[in-house]
Amino acid sequence: MYSESDLEAAIVAGALTRDQAGRFRDFVASGRHAPVVDEEHFRLLTGFNDIFVGIAAVILLVAVGWIGYYVPPRIDFDGPTPFMGLFVAATAWGLAEFFTRERRMALPSILLLLAFVGGVFATAGITLVLAVGEARLQNDATLAAILLAAAAAIAAASAWLHWRRFRVPITVAAGTAAVAALVVGLVLSAVGDTPATETVVLVTLLALGIGVFLFAMRWDASDPRRETRRSDVAFWLHLLAAPMIVHPVFTLLGLTEGSVNPGEAVIVVALYVALGLAALAIDRRALLVSALAYVLYALNSLFREYGAVELSVALTALIIGSALLLLSAFWANARRAIVQPLPEGLRGKLPVLDRVSHEAVAA
Questions:
Q1: Cα–Cα dist 198/192, whole Å
Q2: Residue 131: how many CA atoms within 13 Å on its side-chain side?
């Protein structure tokens, strides 16, 4: 199984010319009866060895973190110690030197990146708590938020260093998530513990989600044919932005409070349709996946409201499953119907509609 990053690396190394890589993409697309651009490639597995190494890496990282637990100082009597995260981060970086930099294995690289950034965040956070003193944090939400922001800033810096060294596409999303946590921490420290805190945080998260989405679109616009690592970076950024946008919207609508009336259900379905149109335009399915749980809950509540209690779950799954499968089957046609009426300037920033026919004409 190849990825766009593999092809780009082969072009850079001189194993393939850009024209040969383009013809290979077209051949694969013609065999699938779909444009390559609509496949939304990203590399997760290069073979079963990825799973094997990933499992072994997780076991090793758990082991070194467990060993770190017994190295004082620790929070409270039996709380965590900074050496837990430090040992995990150091081990993850060392493993990445071989499995990421030399072997270029996909799944282990993702797991090691997440372990490294998470380990740095935990180390920084626990160290700051120990330095400040646990007693001072018990009734001081502002100080706790400041420490959260500081730990997030250190984690963001570590993600930047990891990107400079290994260039794993998910690293940009991990660093962006750390920056978002930094902003949320600063907002919490400014607002304090008030009745409006939750709403302020949700609005902040929504604004950050929109910012991350625009950042992802910038990466996408730099590679509209999705032939380089930039497309993989954009994929992970979209995957991060989607829940940051979807969760605050539906939470502010009251969908997480346990009951949905018919009017709210209609609003949820309408928003899901709008998200579907946006997903088609940018050719990213993450928005649809992130909002899926909310729309399933809303439709299930709607069917219960109108008496279909026993079949509510089945009817909801039938409607949503059928709609998503139809959309997947006719994704390229649906995209064309959405994108073609858009202004030329906007279309130029979106993924191309049909790369196969475009290259055939160019040839």
A1: 10
A2: 12
Q: What is the pTM of this model?
A: 0.82
| Contact predicate 327/292, CB 8 Å | no
* C-alpha span between 231 and 219 (Å, rounded): 7
pLDDT at 38 over 70: no
- Quote the tokens at residue 106: 């996909």
Cβ(302)–Cβ(356) below 8 Å: no
The one-letter amino acid code at 281 reads A
Q: Spell out the domain ranges in the chain.
A: 4-252+330-362
- In order of 18, 22, 36, 225, 361, the CA distances from 358 in angstroms are 15, 11, 12, 10, 5
Sequence-distant (6+) residues with CB within 8 A of 237 are: 172, 173, 176, 212, 213, 215, 216, 219
Q: Which DSSP state fits 33?
A: T
223 pLDDT band (50/70/90 cuts)?
A: confident
Bond into 73 cis (ω within 30): yes
Cβ-contact 116, 100 below 8 angstroms: no
pLDDT (0 to 100) of residue 8:
63
Rg (CA), the chain: 23
